[in-house]
Amino acid sequence: QQTETNTRENKIEYRSPIICILGHVDTGKTSLLDKIRNTNVQGGEARGITQQIGASFIPIEAIKEQTKSFAEKVKMDFKLPGLLLIDTPGHESFNNLRSRGSGLCDVAVLVVDIMHGLEAQTIESINLLRMRNTPFIVALNKVDRIYEWKTCVNTNFVDAYKQQSKPAIQEFDSKVKETIAALAGQELNSELWWRNKDYKKVVSLVPTSAQTGEGIADLMLVVIQVMQKLMLEKVIYQEKLQCTLLEVKVIEGLGCTIDVILVNGRLKEGDKIVVSGFNGPIETNIRSIITPPPLTESRVKSQFIQHQEIKAAMGVKIVASGLEKAVPGTSLYVVDEDDDINAIKAEAIKEVESVLNDIETSGIGVSIQASTIGSLEAFSSFLKKIKIPVANVAVGPVAKKHVMSAAIMLEKDPKYAILLAFDVKIEDSAKQAANDMKVKILSEETIYLFEKKLKDHFDEIRQKLREETANKCVWPCILQVTHVFHRANAIIVGVKVKEGTLHIGTPIAVPNPSVEGGVANIGVVQTIKLNEKDVLIAKKDDAVSVAIDDTNMKTTFGRHFDENVPWYSRISRDSINSLKEGWGDELTQQDAQLLKFLKTVFKIQ
Ligand code: GDP
C-alpha cells in the first residue's frame, strides 16, 4: 500500500502557489520583495529565478539552498515546484487575484513593522484576508531596529536570535508579546513560527529584516510549510483554465495589453479569448504572450521574450486588439473550437454583474465606484462593516452619468449625495457636474482613509442640521418642583429632574383642560444652577434651581398651574421632528419612551 501511495503521489503535479504581500504603508513590503529576489540572485546568478509579468518565480531549488541549514531540523520535504511571488505588494493586486468571489492568492505574507505593531492597513489587510479565506503568515519586519540588535546578515532567524544580547532579546520578546496581544484583539491566535504547533488555527510570526536579511530564509520556509500543511490540494495543477486579469496597460509599440496571472491551464499564441469589458464582453485573439528578459541579462527597454505556449502558474502580458475596456479582477476565457462562444460571453457578463448584484444596495445611500471588480468587492464589504448604506455601484472611471445618479439623493436624503471614488479617475465633466449639482466626490487610494472622511462628512452635515434646528429642538423631561423661590417675572424654582434631561431654552408646561388649548404654558428655561454653578444641562436625578422666563405667558402661578403637579418640557410635532433630524442617533431608548409618554400628555398625534 505504501508503494501505491508513493506512485500516486509521484503522479500528482503541483503548480507554484501564488503569494501576495500585504500590510501597512512603510512596513517594508517592497523591501522584503526585493530582498527575497536579491538574496536569490546574488553574484549575478539567477538560480533559476524568473522575472515574469507582475510576478517573480522563485524555484524550489533556490529555496532549498537558502534554507538548507535548518530545513532538515524541521523535517521539510519539498513538494512544490517553487513560489510565484506577486510583484506589486498591497491590496490592489490581492483584490484582483480573484475568481467568482474567491481569492486566487494561495498564501499571503502580512508585513508588520515590529516597532509599530498593528496599524490601520494591517487591520484592513486582515479583513481582506478573512473575506477571501486566505491563509497568511505575519512577517515581523525591521527586527534590526530592535535596540542593540546585532546584525547577522542573511542568517536564519533562530541562529540570529542566539547571537543577541540580553537587552535586545528582552526588547524583541516584549515587542512579540505586544503583537500577539494585538492580534488576539483581532481574534487571531499567533505564535513565533518555530513554536507554532498548529498551523491551521495559529498564525505564524516570522521575524525578518528586509535590510540585513535575517529571517528571509525562515519566511520562505514557513510559506512552503503553510502551503504543504494546509493547502496542498489547492495547488494540484489542473488543465482547466483559470486565469485572472490583473491590469490593463498601454505599452509603447504594443498598444493596449493585459497583464494576467495564469493560475491553472495553458495559453497559446493565437488562442481566441473572451474577457469582461466595461461595456460588455470582449472577444479577441492572442497576438503574443510575453514576459521580461531573464534577470541575468541586461535589461533593454521593450525587449521581451515571446512564448508560443505557457503553462500555469505564471504571470504574463497578453497582446491583443480591443482590450482597452477590459475589467481587471475578472477572468480570461479561452474559446476552443467546440465551445459555444455565446455561453462564454454570457459567463463573462455574469461575472461582472454578479459582483454588482451581490453588493447590497438600498434605495437610499452613497454611490461607490472602484477601478476593478476586486477592489469594488472589497470596498463594498468594508462599507457594509461600517454600516454605510450603498445605493449606486459602478466599476471604472467616474463619468457625468455617475454623478447624476448620486445626485438623486439630494432629494431623497442629502447626506447621501456623495460619490466615493476608490482609486479611480474622475473625468473633468464629472467634476464639473458634481460642482454644479452640489454632489460631493470623496476620492482616496486606500480603503481605510474613507472611514475618517465619511465620518467628517456626516459630522459636518449633522452639525449643520443641529445648528439649523437648535431652536426648534425640545428634549423631553419631567420635573418635580421641590421649592418655590419666585412665582412670577421670572419664576425661580428648585426642581428635581425625574426623567430625561433639562436643557436651557426648553419650554415648560403642564396639561390643564380649563386653559384654552388644554395646556398651561409656564415659560422657557433661562438658567440652570447645579450646586450654585450655571450649567447648560441637568441630568436625570439632578436637583437644580431653574429660572424660567414667563414674559408673555397668559398663565398665572397658583391659578393655571402649581408646584404640586409634575412639570413637563412642552414638545410638539415640529420639535420631535427637529430632535430626530439633528440628534436621531444619539437619542436613547429612555428618550424615545419619554417622548412617547409626553405625546400622550400633550395629546400629540
Ligand atoms: P512599503 O511601503 O511597505 O513597501 O515599505 P518599503 O519597502 O518602501 O520600506 C519603507 C522604509 O522602511 C524604507 O525606507 C525602507 O528602507 C525601510 N525598511 C524596510 N524594511 C526594513 C528593515 O527590515 N529594516 C530597516 N531598518 N528598515 C527597513
UniProtKB/TrEMBL annotation:
Q: Which UniProt keywords apply?
A: GTP-binding, Initiation factor, Nucleotide-binding, Protein biosynthesis
As one GO molecular function, the record gives: GTPase activity
Can you supply one Gene Ontology CC term for this chain's record? mitochondrion
- Domain named Tr-type G is located at 14-231
Family named by the database record? Belongs to the TRAFAC class translation factor GTPase superfamily. Classic translation factor GTPase family. IF-2 subfamily.
Question: Under which name does UniProt file this protein?
Answer: Eukaryotic translation initiation factor 5B
From which source organism is this entry?
A: Tieghemostelium lacteum (Slime mold)
